[in-house]
Amino acid sequence: MSKPPGVPCPRWLAEPPPDDVEQSLARLASLPDVVRMAVMPDVHLASEVCVGVVLATRHTIYPAAVGSDLGCGMAAVRFRGTSDLLADPARAAQLLAGLYECVPSIRHSRATCRAKLPDELSERPLSHQTLEKQKHRDGLVQFGTLGRGNHFVEFQADKHDQLWLLVHSGSRGIGQQMASWHAAQANDPARVDGGKPCRPAGIPVDSPAGRAYLADLDWAIACAAASRRAIVDAVADLLARHFHIEIEHDSFFDGNHNHVRQETHFGDACWVHRKGAASAQLGEPGVIPGSMGAASFHVEGRGCVDSLHSCSHGAGRALSRGQAARQIPAAEVVRQMHGVWFDHRRAHLLRDEAPRAYKEIHAVMRAQRELVKIARQLRPLLSFKGF
Questions:
Q1: Model pTM?
Q2: Distance (Å, rounded) from C-alpha 259 to C-alpha 305?
Q3: Calpha distance 31→22 (Å, rounded)
Q4: Is residue 55 within a helix (H) or strand (E), and if so which, with residue range?
Q5: How many other C-beta atoms are found inside a 10 Å radius of the C-beta of residue 278?
Q6: H or E element that contains 221
Q7: What is the set of active-site residues?
Q8: How far is residue 2's CA from residue 23's CA, in Å, rounded to a whole number?
C-alpha cells in the first residue's frame, strides 16, 4: 500500500518492513493535518501507530502517535569502577539480589519505599479528578519502580572497561492511565468501524481537551525523568554500601522517546510526535540500546532535517511478544545471554525479551548513520528486568 501524495515520509530502514507495517504507515499518512513523517530503523507494528515513527502536524494532537507509556526513556551514568566488579559470580549474584530489593518492578513495599513523588509533581494538579486520585494512590508506591516488559536496569562497560549504568523506564501506572483517559476523551464515533477504531483520533491543540492532554503529558514526562533518577540513586546507594563504588554525577544524562512537542521544521511551527523515537538535534546526547544481550550506544544527534531531528530509540522488535514466547525456548535465552549475568531462574519469563526477538543493533546503527554519531559503544555485563 502506497502513502498518499503530498506527505513526505523519508525512511531509514535496516530491512524492508512487513506488509502490516506498510499498511499502518499509509493509514497514518492519510490522517487529517499530517504534514510530515519519518520512519526510524527500529520501526515495528504496534496498536494504531507503529513504534519508531515520527509524525508532524500543525493543529492536531494524536495521542496514539505518542503511545501509552508517556515520557518513557533512558538514563545513563558512569561509576568509578570497572567491569572487574562483575568478574566474580558471587558478586554478580549479590548485585542481582540487591536490585530486586531496591528497584521493585511494580510497586514499593513499606521496606523499599524510600523515594517519593517530588513536591512539585505531587502538588501540581492534573486535568481531571480521576487522574488526581490515581496520582496520589500510585505516586507513593510506583515512583522509582521499573515496570515490566522491555524496561530494564543494565550494567555495561565501555572500551576502557569503565562501568556504566543504563535505566529504561517510564511514567508507570499514572502515565498509562493518562494515555487511556485522553484517548477516551478523543474518541470520535466517525472513526469507528464495526465497534473498533479504524484510525487514530485527533485532538485540536487549541481546544480544552488538547490543552489538558499537553499539560498532563508534560507532568508525565517530568515524573518519568524523576523516577529514572530515583532508580539511579537507589542503585548508586546499593553500589556504595556493598561494593564501595561511587557514582560520577556529572556523567548523568537522560532523554525520553514518547512525547509530542512544538518544534520548527522547514520553516513551519509544528507538533512533532515521537512514539519509540528519540530526539536527535545537533549535538544532543542520547542512548540507543540493543537487546539485553547486545551492545548499546551513546550517541550525539546530527540534526538531520529530513528525519525531523530524530533517531531510533533502540533495536526494535523483530518478533512480536507472542511470536517470541512461542518460538524461543528458555534454553535458547540462556545460550543467547552467554557472558551476561542475569537471573537464569526467570529465563522462561524472558522469552519475549530474548536477543532473537529484536533486530540486530549494528544493522540498525548502520541504517541511521546520517541521524546520529556514535560517541561510545558499550557491552552488557548484567541485565535486570522486572517481573
A1: 0.94
A2: 19
A3: 15
A4: strand 51-57
A5: 29
A6: helix 208-243
A7: 313
A8: 8
Which residues are CB-neighbours of 214 under 8 A, at least 6 positions away?
61, 205, 260
Whether residue 72 contacts residue 171, with contact meaning beta carbons closer than 8 Å, is answered with yes
Chain segment 345-368, per-residue pLDDT in tens: 999 999 999 999 999 999 999 999
For 83-195, strand residue ranges (E) read 152-157, 162-169, 192-193
- For 216-237, what is the mean pLDDT? 97
Please identify, in words, the CATH class of the domain defined by 19-318+358-385: alpha beta
Q: Which three cell numbers stand for residue 72?
A: 518513557
Provide CB contacts within 8 A for 278, sequence distance 6+.
73, 255, 256, 257, 286, 288, 310, 311, 312, 313
The cell for 146 is 521499573
d(CA 386, CA 98): 13
CA pair distance 320, 315, nearest whole angstrom: 13
Q: Write out pLDDT tens, residues 239-291.
A: 999 999 999 999 999 999 999 999 999 999 999 999 999 999 999 999 999 99
Q: What is the dihedral of CA 135, 140, 144, 145, to 10 degrees?
A: -90
| SS3 label, residue 231 | helix
